[in-house]
Amino acid sequence: MKAIVIGTGRMGKAIVKVLAEAYPGEIGLYSRDQEKAASLIRSLEVNAIAVTAAQQFEAPIIIHTLWYKDVLPWVVLHREALAGKILVDITNPFNDDFTDFVTDYNTSSAEEIQKLVPDTAVAGAFKNTYWVVFDQPEYNGIQSDIYVTANADTIRSQVMAFLQPIPFRIFDAGVLRNNRTIERMTLLEKELAQKAGNHPRVSFHLWGVDAR
User: pTM of this prediction?
Assistant: First the structure.
């Protein structure tokens, strides 16, 4: 498999759908309840694989869709299995009422995860895009952006190449510390979208710049 998505929540569902459409038969989906993952795949009508607990790390790219409070103990628990993998972090470390962050300004979710698993290449992606956008990544002729971060150029290149077939513009957003900005801009876009009355159908689009 090219990648395995961990979790069957809103973002897990959205991500596995676009990836399975791009890579039929090559994307795994893991849930603690394998039948739940299989049922979700059937409902999406995509060619993906409901993987077992023993198979959940059998891909070079692992995309977790866990909440920030849950992903930290999860990566510690699976530190050995994640060694040598690319772990894509989609998390925004919101507080319980989604009005602020539980992290300081001098760090980000992706950086905190990287500290816990130094033998894993952590990349950030999908942080700026809400789950409902995946069914319509283009709105009024404007295509949504995905910003990819990682400390190593080679890791960013691998993740960007993997994401290239999905219907978003994919950008090289630099090193992990840039997630400090991306994560907080996501909270700002939420507030602006709520005031405009179209939350959660909101994403980023960088005007005047072509994706690379």
Answer: 0.94
